[in-house]
Amino acid sequence: MDVETAIETQIEPVLAETFGLSFSKCLATMATLDFITASGGKTLRYRAFVDSICSGERVLEKWGPELAKKKCQEWKDLVPLEPEPVVILTPASS
User: Fold this and answer.
1) Is residue 88 part of a domain?
2) pLDDT mean for each 10 residues of the chain (94 residues)
3) Considering its fold, how many domains does the chain have in total?
4) Which candidate among 53, 70, 92, 93 keeps its CA 20 to 30 Å from the CA of 37?
5) Quick check: is 44 in a domain?
6) Cα(84)–Cα(24) distance, rounded to whole angstroms?
7) 64 burial via Cβ count (<10 Å: 0-12, 13-18, 19+)
8) What pLDDT, on a 0 to 100 scale, did the predictor assign at position 66?
9) What count of other Cβ atoms lies within 10 Å of the Cβ of residue 92?
10) What long-range pairs does 61-65 form, CB within 8 A, spacing at least 24?
11) Residue 78 and residue 46 in contact, taking contact as beta carbons nearer than 8 Å
């Protein structure tokens, strides 16, 4: 699943149902700042977005650390990690 689909179809509906539309938008906005400022590719930035949501004080108060950790992993698993590029150097032939 791509990042946008995961956020729109899996994360946002759960947040809206759990916290209400207004606060869920606030969580998404704050997490978007982490997405934008994180280094790495889109998947790593998505993971920063998810971490930001799941580590929020109100999220932890409402869900508790175990459920927050579970949701965090579930949401991260929706978007597979991008393969790391590998560069192979070979000696130049003479």
Assistant:
1) no
2) 94 96 94 92 93 96 97 95 72 73
3) 1
4) 70
5) yes
6) 33
7) exposed
8) 97
9) 5
10) 62/18, 62/19, 63/18
11) no
Which tokens is 13 given? 């509906």
pLDDT digits (tens, 9 = 90+) for 22-31: 999 999 999 9
Q: Is residue 86 part of a domain?
A: no
Would residue 93 count as lying in a domain?
no
> What's this model's pTM, rounded to 2 decimal places?
0.82
